[in-house]
Each structure stands twice: as structure tokens, then as C-alpha cells.
Model the fold of this input.
Amino acid sequence: MPEPAGSSLASRDRGLVWHPYAPLDGPEPYAVEGAEGARLTLTAPDGERFEAVDAMASWWCAVHGYRHPALDDAARAQLERFSHVMFGGLTHAPAVELAERLTAIAPGPMAHVFYADSGSVSVEVALKLALQYQAARSRPRRQRFLTVRGGYHGDTFAAMSVCDPVDGMHAAFPGVLASQVFAPRPPSARLVVGESGEEHWETDELAVEEWAGQVRALARAHTDELAAIVVEPVLQGAGGMRVHHPDCLRLLRQVADEHGLLLVVDEIATGFGRTGRLFASEWADVRPDVLCVGKALTGGYLSLAAVLTTSLVGEAITRSQFRALLHGPTFMANPLACAVAGASLTLVEAGWKDDVPRIGRLLTTHLAPATHLPRVVDVRVLGAVGVVQLDEPVDVPAVTLAALRRGVWVRPFRDLVYTMPPYVTSDADVRLVADALVGAVGEVHP
Done:
């Protein structure tokens, strides 16, 4: 059908297409007219046009920005060979080469890779794997998971069950989600970087000690029914953008070892340099049993995630009743996605050690004025992540527009106005992002 005469893209979208956590009759979205580098060209519902720095890296995945020549070339080269083949009974070079690289750079001795369609699906696979692992170890009654409040692991059903059950986004499904074991949210911490670059962590040590006792007590009480511990390392993402001390992850590793549990570390948001380490687990020098990665894996070009496991886990699955990990997506190990992911890893390895600290220093300096705003309760920076937390819910449409008029695209949520910009964002644009966040909050929440 031809489009209605005079109708904007946004008006045609409204009522037709669902957007994330938004009603069909919600505000009309901004239309993307173009994207290059760290910038988006947007058209507002009223026709106003904006050239804006993307402070969100398209929900944290477009770490190399848009239309990156190396990623474009990788996609074109693979398209000239084949864009997709089934992974049942077949293999291909992009999948094998990417798996070799992932296991080589992962925290700890990872030996096996399972490809999934998205981050949520990778968590589903990790949870199924943990159940199969325990059954293979003659502990089939271990079918629950220990996790922490404030976590977010995705929107599919098993993943939802290990997200925060009260403050999370899935309160509408309490009767159908599996009942898991929740420890308190880890106490907040802050990474302090000195003028010469030295780093040290600050936290309430007594609070961490008390939290550790609560975790240990829960693990003891539920040992016979727990299969694994599931956690986002050091930085909780969509559950509140909160930072916790690496000691919390070390404690969970100890508890897992003491009770025969797998430690499943969700690095979907934190992997590939975002927190100031290639993987956030490295802040604690912790080696997980199962590692989930996604988001930045393909630089935001295509949806792809991966589940990595140790050889011990792989051997247990191979000795189990079914001998296989019981999952198999249609688009598993999509060659096009794997080829782009390989190019993305090359870019990450070449640049993150310079770019992430650079962005972090600029965010620390230029977000600092937000601490003087009356509605701001906290400003925190970890790696290339900057967060301004308010004492009330953010007026999302108003803050979004106020930031756009300052040249920056942001997507706040809850009480948070935050940024996770592409690593390629220039110094001037990082300053622009920080100044826009501070200015927008000051304007809308005086």
C-alpha cells in the first residue's frame, strides 16, 4: 500500500509498531534519517531536525559508531560468500574463528562457545546449561538460581526470573516466573582514579561484610536446590546502573566453589572494555564457569551473543544423558554476524585501552557540575559509563528534547540520566554529551 499523503514516518509508526516498554498510543518516536561516526540525524514528530551525538551507543552496542569502514567491509565480504547457513551439521570459518578469538581473550580458561541470537537468549542457554550440568553430576534436584537484587538479565522467561522481582521491569508476570533465591543488592562502591592514573575502590567495608554474611547464609540454606549463581559483574545495567566492589564478585566465586555451584557471569553489557577492563570480571580477577557476552560483540551491526564455558562444564555436558546442550536457534552462528563480530573484536582490541579511560576522565570532569543540582542525588562514572541519578523519576520526553536541543541523543529511564557513548566519540563530543546531560537535568528538574 502507498503511504498516506502528508504522513510522517513517526505518525505512521504510532499505533502500528510496538516500541520497548512503550504503549501503542505513546509519544511519537524520533525518526532516524542517517547515522555516521558517533552522530545521528533525527527528525522530531513536529518535523524539527537534529544532528546529535549518540550518548547511548544504541543501547550500549554501537561501540565503534555507525558506518565504520572495517565493519562495513567485513559485512560486504561475507555477503559475497553467503549470509546464512544452518549450523546443524555444518560449520563455517566466521563461527570457528570468532570462537577461537573469544576463548583466547575471555577471563579464565574458557574452552567452548555456544552462539545465541541475543543477550536474553544467551542467559536462557546458560541457565539450561547449569541445570544439565547439575543433572550430569547426579544432582537433578538442583533447579534454582542464586542471584542478587537489582539485577537485569533480559526479557525472556527464564532470564526474567533472575531479574529483580520487585524493582525490575517484570512485575507483571509473578505467577509464571520460576522462583529464585535473591540476595540483597551488593553495597555500592566507587572507583577513584587519581591524577597520575592510579585506581582504588571506595565502599562501606562493613556493609560488604554484612552482605557477604547474608549471601553465605542463603547459599547454606538452599544448597541442595541451587544450580548456579548468576550475576552482572561490578556494574548492574538496566536494573539501576549501580556499581559494586569487586570483592562482591570474589565472594560469589567462593560461595559457588563451596557449594558446588556454577558461577554464571553476565557480561552482555559490561564486556569488551566498557567498564575499564576488557571484561568486568577482571576487576576481581575472577574466572567464571559460564560467561555470557553480547551487545558490543558485533559493534551493533547485527544481533549475536555467545555463551562461553570451561572445559569442566563441557565435559560434564558431554557425559550427561543427552550429551548435547539442549538448545538450537535457527540463526545460530549466523555467518554474517560472526564475520562482523570478528572485525569488531579487532577494533576493540586496538582501541579500548586508550578510548575508555579517555572518555571516563572527560565524563568525570564534565558531569561533576551535576552534583550541585538540587534534584541530583549521585553522579558516578565507571569506565566509559556516566550516570546522573535524581531523587525522582526522570521526565523522559522533556529531558530527551532538552538534550537534543543541546546536540545529544539520550534515553533516560527510571531516575537515571546516563551515557555509554561509542568509543570513537571525540573529546569535544564527550564534553558535549556531559554538558548536555547536566544542562537538560538542570532545565527539566530544577
About this structure: The chain has a mean pLDDT of 95.
